[in-house]
DNA sequence: TGTTAGCACTCTTTTTGCTTGACTGCTAAT
DNA sequence: ATTAGCAGTCAAGCAAAAAGAGTGCTAACA
């Protein structure tokens, strides 16, 4: 059922006020602050109707109204007036990114830092693996008798966190030989393609099969989100918000947010095309701490997903600000990473 | 002034009880729980004397006694009965380390994890840089026109997080040449030695001076503690302790503990030979959050400092358990890392 | 001289009742 | 459909009273 224009307006004012003050909103304060042309009694009737429809709740009979999760959803999708960032804030974002634009890892760390800084909420981010990412070159670096570091240069980054075990008696030339064969097989191909060719390589790859299997395993690891791909900033910001005056809630929040694996699952489900995505903990999304809200945006450059970034905080969140920050950071980030 | 045996015994009981219950300790409960042979009136006299001497405080005239920082110090150094870990706990420690004993980074992460798990406090750790660490080999890996990754293999680890800028017009052979010269200069030398030879290399190193300077800079970075060398575990554990029922205190704690640079300075001052080191926030140590206690141990293997690990938590900490865990983890860790 | 029983005193914590103030919901008039 | 006005509800704040936990002191005792 579509709400009347007046109901929408009133609901918007309730959410605005509640987000600002954290105090249940009364009919009187609404007429005084936003609606001088109608009486508080009329507003009371409307509030009562909105409560009936599930948009508002009351803590007790004589308290003001508090928005429900349903109300926040409508607010974000329909009612909210989009906020603009100040020049100062925009400059801040640009300055941060321009310094270290060429290192993807740095960019990602800075992204969460900026988001957390500007919104004053905890921010989370994860680099999306890209199964279509193509390999430029693979290099082995043997640094112990039986261990070699695998360096993989792809279109967008340098992967250098995987090791393979090498037979101790393997000569240096053999390792180079293996490297050459591997490069012949892999260069220009995507992770996905390489993982699929594993069967028909016996002839060419003869003696080095175990190495190939190891490298494919390393690639497979890079294809899924790793804990090291998850970035967190401002975990303590939550304490500044009155919604978390209760230790139990803080604990609930921190027990999720301090664990990278949990944050990973939190961010993993997010779709490809959706730009701004709001999930509210109370209904349906089990991964999100109770009474929390997760607002995320997925950024892409040159048609490839870069990563998902967002803010996690109280349901009573400053969505105007958060959405504005996420959109602007996205724009600037994408423009820097596209066609560079 | 030396305390009488009975005073020591009573003080020990007070601290034991207070650590266990978090409730101010009364004369009556002391006689009931630990001292059946003396009357509560006698204990009261002794408590009063101990208060006079600065070991105990009273929140108000009719409350029980609470240990002062001074009392905790004496408790840890003299009074405390050393705790033993259970077989189960010891097995747990061994199992964790045996899995990944050959990767120093993994070992360090696991160390803090184990400590936090077993003590149920937040644990912190930092890998000590070792200025005497000798270099086995240096390798450049050029992966972009103007950027090369610097790989440095030392006696104990593989450093792979530094990049140098290479002149775009530099040929591959020239880079290899530079690598050779650099190895001739550096292999077998310690970080410290290399940083000191920078002046008289002009003749041999001719054209590659900027590269050498870059590499030395990279070494200098490795010689100081890096943020990436700091590990943290169980930041949310603090919330389980009643001492942190107050949001202000939690904030205070987290604002230090979530920031790696702050933890770094916290752990940096610790000496070389001291095994177990207890610092209490209320007096003197400004870096430690107020009302917090930091217990650390420094581990070594083959005569070199591996790192400093410890626990940060409330002053009312279970020192018996914490010291036992730190000592045992240290023993096992050192035995694994020595002469491998 | 050290120890102990007993009692008065102090201070916190809990309970209770009361008052005030903020809202709402309802009703009747517009 | 809107509004003014009023009765009803509930939380929050306050003060006084009661209960409880512990101490310090004094006087007696070994």
Strands, helices and their partners?
The structure is a homodimer of 340-residue chains.
Chain A: H1 5-21, H2 27-33, H3 40-52, E1 56-58, E2 65-67, H4 69-79, H5 87-99, H6 104-119, E3 122-127, E4 135-144, E5 147-154, E6 158-165, H7 172-186, H8 191-196, H9 202-205, H10 209-223, E7 230-233, H11 247-257, H12 260-268, E8 276-280, E9 292-301, E10 304-314, H13 319-337
Antiparallel strand pairs in A: 1-2, 3-7, 3-10, 4-5, 5-6, 8-9, 9-10
Helix pairs in contact in A: 1-4, 2-3, 5-6, 5-13, 6-13
Chain A binds a DNA duplex (30 and 30 nucleotides) through helix 3.
Your description of this structure?
Two copies of one chain form a homodimer. Chain A is α+β, with helices and mostly antiparallel strands and 340 residues long. Chain A is built from 13 helices and ten strands. Chain A has a five-stranded antiparallel sheet with strand order 7-3-10-9-8, sandwiched between helices. In chain A, strand 5 and strand 6 (158-165) form a beta hairpin. In chain A, helix 5 (87-99) runs antiparallel to helix 6 and helix 5 runs parallel beside helix 13. Chain A is elongated, with a radius of gyration of 26 Å. Chain A starts with a helix and ends with a helix. The model of chain A has no long low-confidence stretch (mean pLDDT 87). Chain A binds chain B through residues 137, 139, 141, 143, 149, 151, 153, 158, 160, 235-236, 239-240, 245, 247, 250-251, 254-255, 258, and chain B through 136-137, 139, 141, 143, 149, 151, 153, 158, 160, 234-236, 239-240, 244-245, 247, 250-251, 254-255, 258. Chain A binds a DNA duplex (30 and 30 nucleotides) through residues 24, 26-28, 38-42, 44-45, 47-48, 58-64.
């Amino acid at each position: 059922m579509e709400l009347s224009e007046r109901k929408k307006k009133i609901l918007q004012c309730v959410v605005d006020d509640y987000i600002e003050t954290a105090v249940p909103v009364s009919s009187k304060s609404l007429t005084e602050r936003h609606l001088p042309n109608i009486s508080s009694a009329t507003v009371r009737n409307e509030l009562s109707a909105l409560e009936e429809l599930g948009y508002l709740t009351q803590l007790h009979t004589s308290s003001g109204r508090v928005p429900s999760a349903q109300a926040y959803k409508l607010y974000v999708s329909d009612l909210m007036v989009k906020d603009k960032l100040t020049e100062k804030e925009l400059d801040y974002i640009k300055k941060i990114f321009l310094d270290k634009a060429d290192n993807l890892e740095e960019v990602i760390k800075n992204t969460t830092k900026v988001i957390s800084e500007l919104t004053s909420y905890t921010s989370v981010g994860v680099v999306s693996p890209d199964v279509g990412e193509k390999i430029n070159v693979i290099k082995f670096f043997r640094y112990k008798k039986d261990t070699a570091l695998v360096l993989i240069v792809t279109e967008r980054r340098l992967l250098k966190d995987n090791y393979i075990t090498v037979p101790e008696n393997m000569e240096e030339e053999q390792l180079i030989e293996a490297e050459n064969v591997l490069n012949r097989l892999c260069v220009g191909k995507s992770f996905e393609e390489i993982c699929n060719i594993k069967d028909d390589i016996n002839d060419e790859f003869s003696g080095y099969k175990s190495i190939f299997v190891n490298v494919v395993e390393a690639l497979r690891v890079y294809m899924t989100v790793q804990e090291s791909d998850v970035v967190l900033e401002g975990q303590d910001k939550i304490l500044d918000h009155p919604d978390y005056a209760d230790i139990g809630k803080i604990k609930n929040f921190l027990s999720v947010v301090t664990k990278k694996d949990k944050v990973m699952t939190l961010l993993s489900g997010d779709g490809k095309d959706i730009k701004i995505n709001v999930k509210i903990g109370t209904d349906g999304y089990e991964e999100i701490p109770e009474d929390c809200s997760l607002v995320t945006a997925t950024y892409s450059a040159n048609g490839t997903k870069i990563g998902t970034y967002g803010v996690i905080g109280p349901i009573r969140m400053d969505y105007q600000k958060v959405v504005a920050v996420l959109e602007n950071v996205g724009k600037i980030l994408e423009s820097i990473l596209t066609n560079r």
